[in-house]
Amino acid sequence: MIHIISKKDGPRREDVAAKRIIKENRSTIEALANQFSGGAYSAMRQPPNPPEPEQFVRRHVVGARNNVVAPTRAAYVRVSLNGRVVVVDGDSNKQLHFLGEIRTHENDQKFILATKRNKFYSPMDDKLSRKLAKLDHKTINEDFSEESLAAEIHEVLRLG
Fold first, then answer.
1. 156: how many CB neighbours lie within 10 A of its CB?
2. Closest by Cα among 137, 120, 123, 132 to 159
3. Domain boundaries, the chain
């Protein structure tokens, strides 16, 4: 076993001098850190902002007479930039149903239902596909836009 015996207890002289220099020049050091980081240094040191209240919050009051639920947003149809057509829950913005895709076919854009016949790996259920059958291979153009498709699906499925 080896015992190291130091001549002096406490911090080293160099450490004390370095801490003193940093303390005396704190404002300059912070200004340089902000300049190098584009203001991110000060932003990082700020306490986080409290979260904003949600527009629609479900509140359940438990009691014998009073079970009240705040209004919820209805589901809606969304056509994404990559052509996916889905039904989305209005409250959580999660996908409820994948309905199909808008694909380019012979220089035309067509809505293709997500069915086995159209070679989708995960087809929608038969009930939905029967309701939307008339929209399968519907051409998307100036007369029938993506917005019109979404409105038509919304009406057929009676989403809200």
1. 15
2. 132
3. 13-45, 76-157
**Angle at which helices 13-24 and 26-37 cross, to 10°:** 70
Q: Which residues on adjacent β-strands are paired with residue 103? A: 110
Model pLDDT for residues 90-141, shown as the tens digit of each residue: 888 888 889 999 998 788 899 999 999 988 888 888 888 899 999 998 888 8
Nearest residue to 117 (alpha-carbon basis) of 104, 131, 100, 103: 100
Cβ neighbours of residue 114 closer than 8 Å, sequence gap 6 or more: 98, 99, 100, 101, 120, 122, 123, 124, 129
Whole-angstrom Cα distance, residue 118 to residue 137?
A: 10
Q: Measured between alpha carbons, how far is 76 from 74 in angstroms, rounded to an integer?
A: 6
CB 79 within 8 A of CB 95: no
How far apart (Å, rounded) are the C-alpha atoms in residues 74 and 159?
Answer: 7
> How far apart are alpha carbons 111 and 99 in whole angstroms?
10
68-81 tens-digit pLDDT:
555 567 888 999 88
Cα separation of 70 and 82, whole Å?
34
Residue 101: strand pairing partners: 84, 112
- The tokens for 90 are 């209005």
